[in-house]
C-alpha cells in the first residue's frame, strides 16, 4: 500500500466536522469508504458519520486514482475535496393503501398527508396512517392538490385552505380543519370553484405566502387566481349539466361554492400545459412547462411570457424549482429530467440546459425538499443539491445535481403487488419525509439528509413504530 | 574464187596463229587487208553486206573482241563453204603445202574395177607429224564417269587401255598454279585426264555468263532497225481505216488545261513554291549537344516481392495453415484468395514435388500474350454499401416512438380495436367480450368503462374538434357514445349533433337502417346517445371510418352479400349503401382526406371511386393476396396497404396503379397501418408482435419521390394464438403511438394497450 501512488489532497467542508487544513497524501486506490473512515478516525467521532466526497463539484463514485485517470489529472496536482454527510439509505415508513390511484400527495403540513385521488376525493392522513378526513371535492378525477399558504403560520388554528384541480375543468378552494375526523362538528367547506378552463386541469400551485394560485390546463392556458373568496359568483352559472353537477355537490357542502374568475390568463403555450409554478424568490415570476417542449418564464403581474426555453421534442410532464430560484428541473417523456438555468434570460438553449438526468422509464414527477425552509443551517446548501424523481416503473430516485451519471439512491415502492406501479406524484417535506403517490396508493419514506434528525421526524418514527 | 578464198583463209589462219601471241593492235590492219582483198576478188553477192557492216558501225572499235569473233565466225563459215566446194568440185590443187587436207585422186581400182579415191602418202614432215602428241583417248562419246572406278579411262587407237595418268597431290597442284600463268584459265579435261587451258571462246562464254549477257556470242542485241515504211518511196499513202480523225488530235486537252491551271493557281497562291530552298539539314550532329531532358525518368518496374517464409519448402510451423484455413482457402474463389499457394512442409528439398500448376500457369500466360483476360470474371466488383440508398440516419429524424411508456390491460377478451380522440388526450379500446374502456393517454388510467353485448368490431373517435364522441360497432349496431367530463359547451354541441331537438325529415325511400337516439334531456354517460341498427344479419362491422369533416362515416360489415358497405350521414340521419354490387368481398373502405374520393379495398384490388360523379376512377393492383389494412396519407396522394402475406405496399396515386415501394419487413401478417396525422411517420403492426415505425416524408414537389426510412421496431408484445399487434394508431398531436394486441393468456388480462413516447436521448 505504501508504495502505491498517492495524491496530495486538501479537505474542506461546510459540515460541523472540519479537518485541519493541511495536505494529505491519499492513496489512489481509496474510495469513498476509506475517505469517510479517514475523516471519522481523524476526528475520532463518537458515532461514525458517513460522508460523501465532492471532487471538483463531482461526487466521487470510483476510486480516486480512477477518477484522476478519467479526468486526466496528474499525480502531483493537489485536489480539493469537499465532504458532507452522506444520505442515509431511505427507509420505508408506512404505506397507506387507496382504493383509487393517487394523483397528488402533499406533506407540507407537518404531521399530515394530503392526497388527491382519481375518484375526485381529497383525503387527509396523519402520520399514524389514520384517515382523518375524506373530502369529496370533485366529480371527476382530481389531479392535483396543494395546501395554500404557510403551514406553520396557521398551525395553531389547525385549519387550512387547500386547492385542488380536477378533470372536471375546475379547481376548487376548500377550507378544511386538519386533525379530528369527519364525525367532528367541523367539516370541510368548499369555498370557491375556479372557472376558466375548457379542458381538464393538470396541476395547481400556490405561491409561498398563499396569496395566489396558478392552474395549468390541457387547453394550453394557465390561470392566475388570488385566494380571496368572493362573496358572490363572478362567473355566471351555465347550463343544465353543470347545475346537475353542483346539485350533487350540495350534499356535502352546506353553501354553494362561489364561482370565481381568474385575475389573469397566461397564454403562450401551443400545447397542453402540464405544470405551472411560482418562483420562490420573486413573487411576480412563474414558470411553466408543457407538451410543446418549452419551459416558459412568466411575468405574472403583466401576464406576459418573458422567456422561453425551447427543447427539441421533449414534452414536459413536471417542473420543480430550486428554493433559491436559480434553476428549474423539468421531467419529459423522453425519459430525461433536464436542469435549466433560469437566472438570466439567455438565448441559447444549450447553455441553459446544464445537466440531464437519464431515467429508464418515464419520470412523471419531481420534488425538491420543500422551499419554505430558509430557517436552518448549513445543510440547506447540501439539500439544495438533491432532488427526487418518481417514474412509471415504480422507482423513486434520489439524485444529486452534481452527479448526473447515476442516482444517489433508489427506492422501489409497492413491491410485490400485482397491479401497476406507476408513480404519479412525489413530495418531499423539509423534515425528510417523502410522500409518494401513484397507482398503488401512497407510500411514505424517510430520506434522511444530514441534520434532519433534529426536526419532527421523530414523530414519524414513533408513528411508524406504533 | 574458191582457191583464192581458201588461200586467204589459210593465210588468215596462219596469221591468226602467228599473231595470236603478239599484240592485238596489229589485227585490224590485217582485217583491213582482208577486206580490201575480198572487195577486189569477191563478186557482187557479198559486197552489200560488207559495206553495210562497215557503214553501220564506223565507230565501233575494231580492236574489240566481238569484232574479232565476228570475223572469226565468218571465217569459219567460209571454211565450210570451201570444204563443200572441195567436196563437190574436184579441183587439182596447185599448192599442196597450203592445203589442209590431202587431195584425193579418183582412180579405177585394179581389183574391183570401181573408181576409188586414193590419197597421197602422208609425208611425215612437221606438219603432219603427230608423234609428239599424246595418243588421243578414243573412248568415244560416253560419259567419263563410267570410268571413275576403273584404272583406265579409255582406249587408244589400238584398243589398248589408256591408263589413268597419275595425278599429282595438292602440293603439286599448288606449285602448278604458281608456276603456270595459265593455270587460272585452265580446267580439267576428263577425256584427256589433264588440265587444258580454256579456249578463248570458252572464256568468252564464261565472261558473258558472269556479266549476265546472252551466252550466245552471235546474238546481237543492238541490231539496226529495219526501216520498212520510212524513207522515200516507202510511205504508206492510203490510210489504214476510213474513220475520220478524232477531235482530240487537234483540240487542246481540257483536262490537261485544268490540271495545269490547278498547278498554276497553287503556285500563285504560294502553295507550291517552285524553287523551294532546300532546308539544310546537317548530315551529322552531335548526340550530346541537347539539353538534358527535364522529364523525370520513367519509373522503374516494381520489384517483385521477396518470398516469405511461407513460400519456403520447409516453412516454420507457424506458417503452416490449419485445417480451417485450408478449408477456407479451398472454398474461396481462385481470384479472391489472398495468396495463390498453400504453405507445405517438406523435410528435404528433394521431396518437393513438381509444380502441379505448371500447365495452368503456362496456359494463363499464353492467354495473357494473346491479349485475352486470364479469367472470365462473372462477379461484378461492386461495393455492397454503395448499393444501399443514401438514407438519412434515424437519429436525425426524431421524434419518433422508441420505448414503451405505458401499458394498460383489459381484464379479459382480446382487444381488437382502438380509437384515439382528435386532441390526443383520450383513447378508447374495445375487446371481444364487449367491454369498451376509455383511457387517459398520458397516465394510462381507465376513466370509464362501458359494456355492450357482443364483440366489439371497431371503435372510432369522431374527428371533429367541437364535439366529442366516438362510435362503437357491435353486431348489427353502431353506438355513438359521449365520453364523460366534457366542457358544457362541447357537451351541448355533441348532444345537438347526435340527438337534435328537431329531427331532419325522413328520406322518401325507407332505408333498412334505423336510427334511434335518446333525448338530450335524458342523457346519461353510461348509455349510447345514438344507435344505428344496420340491416339484420349483416354481422359485426369490421371497420368504421370517418370522413375528415366528421359528418360522414362508412362501415364495412362482413356478413352480407352486398359487401356491407354503408355510408352514414350524421346531420341528415340517413344511411345509404353506395354500391349495388361489388366484385369480391370488401375488406376496407376509406375516405380521401381532401377530395370526394372513396377507396374500397377488396381482397386483392383497391378501387378508387369518385363519390360526387359516382364512377370508378382507378384500380390499384397491390400484388397482395389478401389486403388487411389501408391508410391514406393526410395529403391525399399516397396510400399504404398492408396484407396478410406480410407485405406493405406504398402507392403513389399520381404515379401508377402499381406500388411505388413494397416493404417486406414483417415476418407475419400485417394487421394495421396508420399514418401520423401531423408528423411524417407511419406505423405498421403485425402478427409477429412488432410495430415498425417508418419515416415517410412526402414532398409537395411532384418530381421528388417520397422518402421512406425505417426507423424503429417496437417489440414487447407477446404473440398469443398467432395474433400479434392487431391495431396501432397514432396520437394526433404527439409522436406517440397507441397500440394494442392480444397478449398474456391465462387468467389475467389477455389484452393490453400501451403507448410509446419519443426519446431524444
SS element count, helices of chain B: 11
Give the strand order, joined by hyphens, for the main sheet of chain A. Answer: 2-1-5-3-4
Instruction: Kindly name the structural category of chain B.
Output: alpha+beta
Helix tally of chain A equals 6
Outline the low-pLDDT stretches of chain A: 239-254, 372-381, 450-466
Rg for CA atoms of chain B: 67 Å
Subunit structure (chain A): Component of the NOP7 complex, composed of ERB1, NOP7 and YTM1. Within the NOP7 complex ERB1 appears to interact directly with NOP7 and YTM1. The NOP7 complex also associates with the 66S pre-ribosome.
GO cellular component, one term (chain A): nucleoplasm
Keywords (chain A): Nucleus, Repeat, Ribosome biogenesis, rRNA processing, WD repeat
Protein name (chain A): Ribosome biogenesis protein YTM1
Write the layout of secondary structure elements.
The complex is a heterodimer of chains A (466) and B (761).
Chain A (H helix, E strand, L loop, with lengths): L5 E8 L9 E5 L4 H12 L7 E5 L2 E2 L4 H8 L7 E7 L5 E6 L5 E5 L5 E6 L3 E6 L4 E6 L5 E7 L10 E8 L3 E8 L11 E7 L5 E6 L5 E6 L3 E6 L13 H10 L8 E3 L3 E4 L5 E6 L6 E6 L3 E6 L4 E7 L5 E6 L5 E6 L3 E6 L7 H4 E6 L4 E5 L11 H5 L2 E6 L3 E6 L8 E4 L10 E6 L4 E6 L2 E6 L10 H9 L1
Parallel strand pairs in A: 1-5, 14-18
Antiparallel strand pairs in A: 1-2, 3-4, 3-5, 6-34, 7-8, 8-9, 9-10, 11-12, 12-13, 13-14, 15-16, 16-17, 17-19, 20-21, 21-22, 22-23, 24-25, 25-26, 26-27, 28-29, 29-30, 30-31, 32-33, 33-34
Chain B lengths: L1 H17 L8 H15 L3 H12 L8 H24 L16 E4 L6 E4 L33 E4 L5 E3 L6 H10 L6 E4 L4 E4 L2 H12 L42 H16 L53 H9 L26 H12 L14 H4 L13 E10 L4 E6 L5 E6 L3 E6 L5 E6 L4 E6 L8 E5 L2 E5 L6 H11 L15 E4 L12 E4 L7 E6 L5 E6 L7 E5 L4 E3 L11 E4 L5 E5 L3 E6 L4 E7 L5 E6 L5 E6 L4 E5 L8 E3 L6 E6 L5 E6 L4 E7 L9 E8 L10 E6 L6 E6 L8 E8 L3
Antiparallel strand pairs in B: 1-2, 3-4, 5-6, 7-35, 8-9, 9-10, 10-11, 12-13, 13-14, 14-16, 15-16, 17-18, 18-19, 19-20, 21-22, 22-23, 23-24, 25-26, 26-27, 27-28, 29-30, 30-31, 31-32, 33-34, 34-35
Amino acid at each position: 500500500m505504501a508504495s502505491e501512488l498517492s495524491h496530495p489532497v486538501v479537505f474542506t467542508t461546510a459540515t460541523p466536522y472540519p479537518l485541519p487544513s493541511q495536505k494529505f497524501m491519499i492513496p489512489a486506490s481509496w474510495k469513498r469508504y476509506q475517505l469517510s473512515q479517514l475523516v471519522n478516525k481523524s476526528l475520532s467521532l463518537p458515532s461514525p458519520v458517513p460522508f460523501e466526497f465532492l471532487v471538483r463539484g463531482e461526487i466521487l463514485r470510483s476510486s480516486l486514482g480512477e477518477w484522476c485517470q478519467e479526468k486526466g489529472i496528474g499525480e502531483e496536482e493537489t485536489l480539493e475535496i469537499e465532504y458532507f454527510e452522506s444520505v442515509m439509505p431511505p427507509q420505508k415508513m408506512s404505506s397507506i393503501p387507496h382504493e383509487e390511484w393517487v394523483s397528488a400527495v402533499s406533506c407540507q403540513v407537518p404531521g399530515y398527508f394530503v392526497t388527491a385521488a382519481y375518484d375526485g376525493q381529497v383525503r387527509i392522513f396523519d402520520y399514524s396512517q389514520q384517515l382523518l378526513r375524506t373530502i369529496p371535492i370533485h366529480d371527476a378525477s382530481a389531479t392535483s392538490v396543494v395546501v395554500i399558504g404557510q403551514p406553520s403560520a396557521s398551525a395553531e388554528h389547525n385549519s387550512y385552505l387547500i386547492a385542488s384541480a380536477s378533470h372536471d375543468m375546475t379547481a376548487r378552494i376548500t377550507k378544511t380543519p386538519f386533525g379530528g375526523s369527519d364525525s367532528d362538528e367541523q367539516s370541510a367547506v368548499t369555498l370557491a370553484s375556479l372557472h376558466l378552463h375548457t379542458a381538464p386541469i393538470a396541476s395547481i400551485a400556490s405561491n409561498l405566502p398563499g396569496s395566489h394560485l396558478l392552474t395549468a390546463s390541457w387547453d394550453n392556458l394557465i390561470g392566475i387566481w388570488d385566494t380571496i373568496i368572493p362573496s358572490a359568483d363572478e362567473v355566471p352559472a351555465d347550463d343544465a349539466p353543470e347545475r346537475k353537477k353542483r346539485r350533487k355537490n350540495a350534499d356535502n357542502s352546506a353553501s354553494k361554492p362561489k364561482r370565481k374568475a381568474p385575475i389573469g390568463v397566461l397564454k403562450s403555450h401551443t400545447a397542453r400545459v402540464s405544470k405551472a409554478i411560482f418562483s420562490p424568490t420573486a413573487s411576480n415570476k412563474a414558470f411553466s412547462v408543457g407538451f410543446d417542449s418549452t419551459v416558459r418564464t412568466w411575468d405574472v403581474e403583466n401576464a406576459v411570457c418573458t422567456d422561453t426555453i425551447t427543447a427539441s421534442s421533449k414534452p414536459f410532464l413536471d417542473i420543480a424549482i430550486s428554493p433559491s430560484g436559480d434553476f428549474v428541473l423539468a421531467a419529459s417523456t423522453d425519459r430525461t429530467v433536464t436542469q435549466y438555468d433560469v437566472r438570466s434570460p439567455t438565448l441559447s438553449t444549450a447553455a441553459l440546459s446544464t445537466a440531464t438526468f437519464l431515467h429508464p422509464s418515464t419520470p412523471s414527477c419531481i420534488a425538491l425538499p420543500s422551499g419554505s425552509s430558509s430557517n436552518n443551517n448549513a445543510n440547506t446548501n447540501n439539500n439544495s443539491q438533491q432532488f427526487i424523481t418518481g417514474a412509471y416503473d415504480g422507482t423513486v430516485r434520489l439524485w444529486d445535481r452534481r452527479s448526473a451519471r447515476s442516482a444517489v439512491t433508489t427506492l422501489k415502492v409497492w413491491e410485490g403487488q400485482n397491479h401497476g406501479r406507476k408513480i404519479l406524484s412525489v413530495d418531499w417535506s423539509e423534515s425528510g419525509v417523502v410522500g409518494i403517490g401513484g397507482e398503488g396508493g401512497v407510500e411514505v419514506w424517510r430520506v434522511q439528509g444530514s441534520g434532519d434528525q433534529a426536526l419532527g421526524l421523530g414523530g414519524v418514527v414513533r408513528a411508524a413504530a406504533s | 574464187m574458191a582457191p583464192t578464198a581458201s588461200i586467204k583463209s589459210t593465210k588468215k589462219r596462219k596469221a591468226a596463229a602467228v599473231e595470236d601471241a603478239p599484240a592485238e593492235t596489229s589485227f585490224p590492219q590485217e582485217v583491213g587487208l582482208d577486206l580490201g582483198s575480198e572487195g577486189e576478188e569477191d563478186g557482187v553477192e557479198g559486197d552489200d553486206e560488207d559495206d553495210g557492216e562497215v557503214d553501220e558501225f564506223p565507230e565501233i572499235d575494231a580492236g574489240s573482241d566481238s569484232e574479232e569473233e565476228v570475223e572469226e565466225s565468218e571465217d569459219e563459215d567460209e571454211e565450210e563453204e570451201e570444204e563443200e566446194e572441195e567436196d563437190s568440185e574436184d579441183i587439182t590443187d596447185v599448192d599442196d603445202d597450203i592445203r589442209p587436207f590431202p587431195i584425193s585422186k579418183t582412180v579405177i581400182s585394179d581389183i574391183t574395177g570401181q573408181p576409188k579415191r586414193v590419197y597421197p602418202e602422208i609425208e611425215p614432215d612437221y606438219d603432219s607429224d603427230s608423234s609428239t602428241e599424246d595418243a588421243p583417248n578414243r573412248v568415244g562419246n560416253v560419259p567419263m564417269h563410267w570410268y571413275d572406278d576403273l584404272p583406265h579411262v579409255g582406249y587408244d587407237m589400238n584398243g589398248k587401255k589408256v591408263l589413268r595418268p597419275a595425278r599429282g597431290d595438292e602440293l603439286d597442284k599448288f606449285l602448278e598454279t604458281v608456276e603456270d600463268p595459265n593455270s587460272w584459265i585452265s580446267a580439267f579435261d576428263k577425256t584427256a585426264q589433264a588440265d587444258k587451258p580454256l579456249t578463248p571462246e570458252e572464256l568468252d562464254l564464261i565472261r558473258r555468263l558472269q556479266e549476265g549477257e546472252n551466252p550466245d556470242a552471235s546474238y546481237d542485241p543492238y541490231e539496226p532497225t529495219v526501216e520498212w515504211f520510212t524513207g522515200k518511196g516507202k510511205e504508206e499513202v492510203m490510210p489504214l481505216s476510213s474513220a475520220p480523225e478524232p477531235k482530240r488530235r487537234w483540240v487542246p486537252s481540257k483536262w490537261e488545261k485544268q490540271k495545269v491551271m490547278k498547278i498554276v493557281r497553287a503556285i500563285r497562291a504560294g502553295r507550291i513554291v517552285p524553287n523551294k530552298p532546300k532546308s539544310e539539314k546537317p548530315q551529322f550532329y552531335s548526340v550530346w549537344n541537347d539539353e538534358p531532358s527535364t522529364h523525370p525518368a520513367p519509373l522503374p518496374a516494381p520489384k517483385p516481392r521477396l518470398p516469405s517464409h511461407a513460400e519456403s519448402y520447409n516453412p516454420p510451423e507457424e506458417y503452416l495453415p490449419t485445417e480451417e484455413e485450408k478449408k477456407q482457402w479451398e472454398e474461396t474463389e481462385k481470384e479472391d484468395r489472398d495468396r495463390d499457394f498453400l504453405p507445405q512442409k517438406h523435410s528435404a528439398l528433394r521431396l518437393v514435388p513438381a509444380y502441379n500448376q505448371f500447365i495452368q500457369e503456362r496456359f494463363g500466360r499464353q492467354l495473357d500474350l494473346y491479349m485475352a483476360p486470364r479469367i472470365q470474371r462473372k462477379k461484378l466488383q461492386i461495393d455492397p454499401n454503395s448499393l444501399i440508398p443514401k438514407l438519412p440516419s434515424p437519429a436525425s429524424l426524431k421524434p419518433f416512438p422508441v420505448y414503451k411508456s405505458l401499458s394498460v390491460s383489459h381484464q379479459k377478451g382480446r382487444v381488437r380495436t382502438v380509437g384515439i380522440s382528435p386532441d390526443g388526450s383520450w383513447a378508447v379500446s374495445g375487446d371481444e367480450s364487449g367491454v369498451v374502456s376509455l383511457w387517459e393517454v398520458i397516465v394510462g388510467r381507465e376513466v370509464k368503462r362501458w359494456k355492450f353485448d357482443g364483440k366489439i368490431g371497431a371503435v372510432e373517435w369522431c374527428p371533429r374538434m367541437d364535439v366529442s364522441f366516438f362510435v362503437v360497432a357491435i353486431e348489427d349496431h353502431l353506438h355513438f357514445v359521449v365520453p364523460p367530463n366534457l366542457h358544457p359547451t362541447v357537451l351541448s354541441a355533441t348532444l345537438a349533433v347526435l340527438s337534435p331537438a328537431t329531427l331532419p325529415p325522413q328520406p322518401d325511400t325507407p332505408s333498412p337502417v334505423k336510427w334511434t337516439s335518446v333525448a338530450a334531456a335524458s342523457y346519461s354517460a353510461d348509455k349510447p346517445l345514438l344507435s344505428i341498427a344496420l340491416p339484420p344479419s349483416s354481422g359485426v362491422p369490421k371497420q368504421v371510418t370517418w370522413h375528415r369533416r366528421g359528418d360522414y362515416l362508412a362501415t364495412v360489415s362482413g356478413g352480407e352479400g352486398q359487401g356491407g358497405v354503408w355510408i352514414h350521414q350524421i346531420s341528415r340521419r340517413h344511411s345509404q349503401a353506395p354500391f349495388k354490387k361489388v366484385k369480391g368481398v370488401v375488406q376496407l373502405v376509406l375516405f380521401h382526406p381532401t377530395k370526394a374520393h372513396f377507396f374500397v379495398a377488396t381482397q386483392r384490388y383497391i378501387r378508387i371511386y369518385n363519390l360526387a360523379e359516382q364512377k370508378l376512377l382507378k384500380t390499384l393492383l397491390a400484388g397482395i393476396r389478401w389486403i388487411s389494412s389501408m391508410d391514406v396519407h393526410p395529403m391525399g396522394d399516397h396510400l399504404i396497404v398492408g396484407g396478410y402475406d406480410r407485405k406493405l405496399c406504398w402507392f403513389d396515386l399520381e404515379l401508377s396503379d402499381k406500388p411505388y415501394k413494397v416493404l417486406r419487413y414483417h415476418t407475419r401478417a400485417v394487421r394495421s397501418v396508420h399514418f401520423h396525422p401531423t408528423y411524417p411517420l407511419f406505423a405498421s403492426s403485425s402478427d409477429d408482435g412488432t410495430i415498425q415505425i417508418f419515416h415517410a416524408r412526402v414532398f409537395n414537389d411532384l418530381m421528388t419521390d417520397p422518402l421512406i426510412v425505417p426507423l424503429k421496431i417496437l417489440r414487447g408484445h407477446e404473440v398469443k394464438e398467432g395474433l400479434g399487434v392487431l391495431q396501432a394508431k397514432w396520437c394526433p398531436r404527439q409522436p406517440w403511438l397507441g397500440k394494442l394486441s392480444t397478449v398474456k393468456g391465462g387468467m389475467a388480462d389477455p389484452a393490453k394497450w400501451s403507448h410509446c413516447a419519443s426519446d431524444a436521448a
